[in-house]
Amino acid sequence: MTVEVWLRRWLASRLSLRAETARSYGGHIDDYLVPYLGQVLLAELNRSRVQAMFTQIAVAEGMTGRPVSAATLHRIHATLRAALNEAVRVGLIPMNPAVGVELPSATRPRPMVWTPERVAAWRRDGTRPTVPVWTPTQTAAFLAFVREHRLYALFHLVALTGLRRGEVCGLCWTDVNLDAGVLSVARQRCQTAGRVAVAPPKSRAGVREVALDHTVVTALRQHRYRQQIERAVAGQPCVESGYVFTFADGRALSPDRLTRIFAGVVRASGLPPVTIHGLRHGAATMALAAGAGLKTVQAMLGHSSIQVTADIYSAVLPATAHEAAENTAALLFLLHGPGRKLARVAWRRG
């Protein structure tokens, strides 16, 4: 059996994969693994061959001017490793030759807020952070700008709770309890190659309850009222989809359409650009700046582990970081300068 035969057989057997995950695995197999390893006999595949493949991918793509990022190399490796783990499990090979392969370190891009300096650079020459995030002032300005937009409640909800794009598109009225001020994330709408499908949240931790503050509750109540008015005055029967955020005729909102709508209103606002996912990052950043703990933010965002939350949001808003720096300096000079006895007493009591 060749590596190609096994890879395709393995992928076809993964019936529980999400559509986007299966598409990603298929791309790795078609674009990288089969061209480099496809004709190798599975039983003869070893670590040196796998290591040579990753070296060749990096060199070949670099020569064409389209270097493969370290993150992509790690994803390709994860696909191959998973397929070969299954080959070990069913007894086709004694050990996984993808284990122990050396890859360049991949760092996750961290959200960076639009400070005045970054905004000036963007306006001057278009320079922008990899993952830009608005400050609270910029977010408030955006929400004021879109106050009359028919999807205002969606933008308000994501800005305060950090729901993912697919989660907010998949939110149904049966998932929302406005009296209790809570919603349940039970599904997401995923879009792959133009097709939309309903799927469970991204991970087990994604199935969660999210607390709603009074401003979000008010925005959702007004949205529901507007939705009822839209359907009452419509000249033709509306689709009763049950989703919270829909088109005027009741059809469910697709994730890609939401991305385009959001990009359009951001451009019209004149604010520095962020994506709908950047709005999610902003919700997490503001929650941390307001004093929420990492565990609370992890639960709000539906991250699989607190380490993911800590890695992404190791830096918070500049104002908060500046305040922490000032407090640290004040503590140092209080303890080692004039008034140190009083400060030490306060420190012990505190």
List strands and helices in order, with pairings.
Blueprint: H1 3-13, H2 19-37, H3 47-63, H4 70-89, E1 112-113, H5 116-125, E2 132-133, H6 136-145, H7 152-161, H8 165-169, E3 176-177, E4 182-185, E5 188-192, E6 195-199, E7 208-211, H9 214-233, H10 255-269, H11 276-289, H12 294-301, H13 306-312, H14 318-336, H15 340-349
Parallel strand pairs: 1-2
Antiparallel strand pairs: 3-4, 4-7, 5-6
Number of domains: 3
What is the second-level CATH architecture of the largest domain?
Orthogonal Bundle
Briefly note the structural class of the backbone. Answer: mainly alpha
For the secondary structure, the number of strands is: 7
Sequence of secondary-structure elements: HHHHEHEHHHEEEEEHHHHHHH
CATH class designation of the largest domain: Mainly Alpha
Shape by Cα distribution: globular
Read across the widest sheet, the strand sequence of neighbours is: 3-4-7
Q: Radius of gyration from the CA trace?
A: 25 Å
Protein name: Site-specific integrase
Domain Core-binding (CB): 1-88
Organism: Catenulispora pinistramenti
InterPro entries: CB (IPR044068), DNA_brk_join_enz (IPR011010), Integrase-like_cat_sf (IPR013762), Integrase_catalytic (IPR002104), Integrase_recombinase_N (IPR010998), Tyrosine_recombinase_XerCD (IPR050090)
